């Protein structure tokens, strides 16, 4: 049994500091124009001196940097964390994507949010000679267009400013659109829950046939739930 000496810091103090640092890091990463020290202090509900220490620690780890305007923004160290997160969700999704692509004889993909875009992190085509739509891994389109964009936004907590289509997608568990990303193409997407606030994601199916998109909703939602469970 470990006995804590009088006056020594408790484990709770360290955990609270870590929690504050992570909260500050997430807020800075999400802020397009960065955050000033006062912004971080207000966000965390702490004195400016404490916020400054937290920001210095994050800066020393190369996770953030202070720009010439004295606002803190994400730094190169975040790329390593992002890469690891991408690898984890891709590994969790690929077996499910292969199963669904073959079951539905359609191309399916894993898309994630990257800034204001939806980006294809993995694309799986069905086996066999059946006709299917093809597109490239790494393809991107704005979040405000297409089923994938709606589903990615729906994977996150509600915002007062979000579009009605996002609220409907969250309520239904999926989104269907037509011709918003590619002409004459239906998109069907379901949000992947549990991917985290920094890695919003969805599973997406594209097809030229309306009946395929509408008939695949249950399977795509179930696939999204399978991926979510593999991330837990």
Task: Characterize the structure shown.
The model is unreliable at 1-10 (pLDDT under 50). With 232 residues, the chain is an alpha+beta fold. A six-stranded antiparallel beta sheet has the order 5-4-3-8-7-6. Strands 1-2 form a two-stranded antiparallel ribbon. The protein has eight helices and eight strands, in the order αααββαβββααβββαα. It has two domains: 11-75, Winged helix-like DNA-binding domain superfamily/Winged helix DNA-binding domain (Arc Repressor Mutant, subunit A, Orthogonal Bundle); 79-231, Beta-Lactamase (2-Layer Sandwich). α2 packs across α3. Helix content is 47%, strand content 19%.
SSE layout and pairings?
Elements (H helix, E strand, L loop, with lengths): L10 H20 L6 H8 L3 H13 L3 E3 L5 E3 L2 H28 L2 E8 L2 E8 L15 E3 L3 H9 L9 H9 L2 E4 L7 E7 L8 E7 L2 H6 L1 H15 L1
Antiparallel strand pairs: 1-2, 3-4, 3-8, 4-5, 6-7, 7-8
Helix pairs in contact: 1-3, 2-3, 4-8, 5-6
Short description:
The protein is 47% helix and 19% strand.
Please state the average pLDDT score.
Answer: 85
What composes the largest sheet? 6 strands, antiparallel
Classified by CATH, the class of the largest domain is Alpha Beta
Strand content: 15-25%
Report strand order across the widest sheet: 5-4-3-8-7-6
Report how far the terminal alpha carbons are from each other. Answer: 32 Å
Q: Count the helices. How many?
A: 8
Return the string of H and E elements: HHHEEHEEEHHEEEHH
Poorly predicted segments: 1-10
Provide the structure class: alpha+beta
Fold-level CATH name of the largest domain: Beta-Lactamase
- Please state the CA-atom Rg, rounded to the nearest Å: 21 Å
């Amino acid at each position: 049994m470990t006995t804590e000496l009088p006056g020594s810091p408790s484990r709770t103090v360290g955990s609270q500091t870590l929690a504050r640092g992570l909260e500050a890091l997430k807020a800075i990463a999400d802020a397009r124009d960065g955050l000033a020290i006062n912004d971080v202090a207000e966000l965390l509900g702490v004195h400016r001196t404490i916020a400054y220490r937290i920001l210095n620690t994050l800066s020393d780890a190369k996770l953030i940097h202070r720009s010439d305007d004295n606002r803190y923004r994400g730094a190169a160290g975040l790329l390593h964390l992002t890469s690891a997160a991408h690898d984890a969700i891709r590994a969790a999704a690929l077996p499910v994507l292969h199963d669904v692509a073959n079951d539905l004889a359609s191309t399916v993909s894993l898309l994630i949010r990257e800034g204001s875009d939806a980006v294809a992190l993995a694309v799986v085509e069905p086996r066999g000679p059946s006709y299917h739509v093809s597109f490239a891994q790494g393809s991107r389109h704005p979040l405000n267009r297409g089923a994938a964009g709606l589903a990615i936004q729906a994977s996150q907590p509600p915002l007062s400013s979000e579009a009605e289509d996002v609220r409907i997608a969250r309520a239904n568990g999926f989104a269907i659109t037509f011709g918003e990303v590619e002409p004459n193409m239906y998109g069907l997407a379901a949000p992947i829950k549990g991917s985290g606030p920094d890695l919003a994601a969805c599973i997406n199916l594209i097809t030229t046939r309306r009946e395929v998109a509408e008939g695949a909703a249950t399977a795509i939602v179930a696939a999204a739930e399978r991926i979510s469970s593999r991330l837990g």
